[in-house]
Amino acid sequence: CEALTNLDLSSFNTSSVTNMEQMFSDCKALTNLDLSSFNTSSVTNMQYMFANCEALTNLDLSSFNTSSVTNMQYMFYTCEALTNLDLSSFNTSSVTNMNEMFSFASNLENVIWGKNWGAGLEASTSPVLSFYFTPKFTHSSALDLINKLADHSSTGGGRIVEFNTALQPSITDEEIAIATAKGWEIQFA
Q1: Are 16 and 41 in contact, with CB atoms under 8 Å apart?
Q2: Spatial separation of the C-alpha atoms in residues 118 and 115, rounded to whole Å
Q3: CA distance 166 to 134
Q4: Closest CA to 112 of 65, 62, 70
Q5: Alpha-carbon distances, residue 18 vs 53, 94, 111, 183 (angstroms)
Q6: How many CB atoms lie within 10 A of CB 2?
Q7: If we measure between CA atoms, which residue out of 110, 172, 189, 108 comes closest to residue 145?
Q8: How many alpha carbons lie under 13 Å from residue 79 in its C-beta half-sphere?
């Protein structure tokens, strides 16, 4: 579907769908996607869902119920035109795989996070939230993420948030301490 520019999914009944892996993958010319009518309450896999949607500038995920999702690996991989994402409705308590979720979303600046982000990574073998390929990620989005990270302090460290080195000068020791107190380590790459 590399040449597809428009898609009307308003009549889709997705209430029984459990797997949305690669659903829009490689829709390289798609610029706008309104998924506000999607019922995702049964979905467990969103791996590569929007991967390589290089022209996508608008993505409405406000209705997404992600409480059953366990895999978000590469979900927004190479979404190069996305600058803003509202993930405030996302519940990531079951997500054990967020590997490279935002990799090469090179123009991503602002993300609105849901609460307890990364809670499911407690059970992950790779508990890393990676933003090192998002050089335009703003300090305010990074700080919002730090404040909304799930608290893993009772089980010790081992969870990592990787930011692009462009953010290093703006992340304060106090902000790093907030993440550390929750059991997360901040790294720059």
Answers
A1: no
A2: 9
A3: 9
A4: 62
A5: 22, 14, 26, 32
A6: 10
A7: 110
A8: 27
Contact 64, 39 (CB under 8 A): no
Residue with tokens 């304060």: 172
Length of the chain, please?
189
Beta-carbon contacts of 172 under 8 Å, excluding residues fewer than 6 positions away, are none
Torsion of CA 85, 89, 92, 94, to 10 degrees: -140
pLDDT of res. 128: 87
Residue 100 tokens, joined: 């490279």
Please give the chain's pLDDT, 189 residues, in tens. Answer: 999 998 999 999 999 999 999 999 999 999 999 999 999 999 999 999 999 999 999 999 988 999 999 999 999 999 999 999 999 999 999 999 999 999 999 999 999 999 889 888 877 877 888 998 999 999 999 999 999 999 986 655 579 999 999 999 999 999 999 999 999 999 999
The whole model's pTM is what? 0.93
**DSSP classification of residue 165:** G
